[in-house]
């Protein structure tokens, strides 16, 4: 059901804010009967919560740059670009969710939970990398992860909007890659014969 409603929501968000989209209009755009909607969802906010989870899976699960340890800064930039492209596909909805979350406790908890989950995954990546000699040991994993994710949450809406060109996304990804590479990976001892990107 979310697969039918997600494109309709994102289509309507090109025309008006999430607060101005009525349920009847949304269901008409998606071609979904009201009885069918209420079989799956309690109300519009319940739909937004489910869509938030679906979008988080698309943007973060499998697309997070922290899924593996990069061997070069360019590889890190390429991985971040994948995450940014996934974000761009859903930028309107993500912005709408952030805008609506302060007025609904359940939606706010969902948005905050997504941030906290991603931060924990980045912290685990850092801690694991430190044990394996792939991440600098002078970095506090939890604090660094929170700062990195906060930069992404603040920066993505400003630098990767739905109309951004692929070149703009690549520049944004490379810029963040420079910051993360220097913060986490630069200066880590490599096996003889291998050089680190700088």
From TrEMBL:
It comes from the Bacteria. GO terms for molecular function: DNA-binding transcription factor activity; transcription cis-regulatory region binding. The keyword Transcription applies. Keywords: DNA-binding, Transcription, Transcription regulation. Residues 22-41 bind DNA. Pfam families: TetR_N. The keyword Transcription regulation applies. Residues 1-59 form the HTH tetR-type domain. PANTHER family: HTH-TYPE TRANSCRIPTIONAL REGULATOR BETI, HTH-TYPE TRANSCRIPTIONAL REGULATOR RUTR. This is HTH tetR-type domain-containing protein. It comes from Mycobacterium arosiense ATCC BAA-1401 = DSM 45069.
């Amino acid at each position: 059901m979310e697969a039918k409603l997600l494109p309709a929501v994102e289509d309507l968000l090109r025309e008006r804010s999430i607060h101005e989209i009525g349920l009847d209009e949304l269901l008409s755009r998606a071609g979904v009967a009201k009885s069918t909607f209420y079989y799956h969802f309690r109300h519009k906010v319940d739909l937004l919560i489910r869509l938030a989870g679906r979008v988080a899976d698309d943007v973060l699960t499998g697309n997070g740059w922290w899924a593996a340890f990069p061997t070069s800064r360019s590889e890190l930039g390429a991985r971040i670009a994948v995450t940014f492209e996934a974000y761009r596909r859903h930028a309107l909805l993500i912005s709408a969710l952030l805008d609506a979350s302060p007025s609904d406790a359940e939606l706010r908890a969902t948005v905050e939970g997504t941030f906290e989950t991603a931060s924990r995954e980045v912290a685990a990546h850092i801690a694991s990398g430190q044990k394996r000699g792939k991440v600098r040991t002078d970095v506090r994993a939890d604090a660094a992860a929170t700062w990195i994710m906060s930069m992404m949450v603040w920066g993505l809406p400003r630098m990767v909007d739905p109309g951004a060109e692929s070149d703009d996304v690549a520049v944004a990804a490379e810029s963040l890659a420079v910051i993360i590479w220097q913060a986490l990976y630069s200066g880590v001892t490599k096996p003889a014969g291998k050089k680190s990107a700088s």
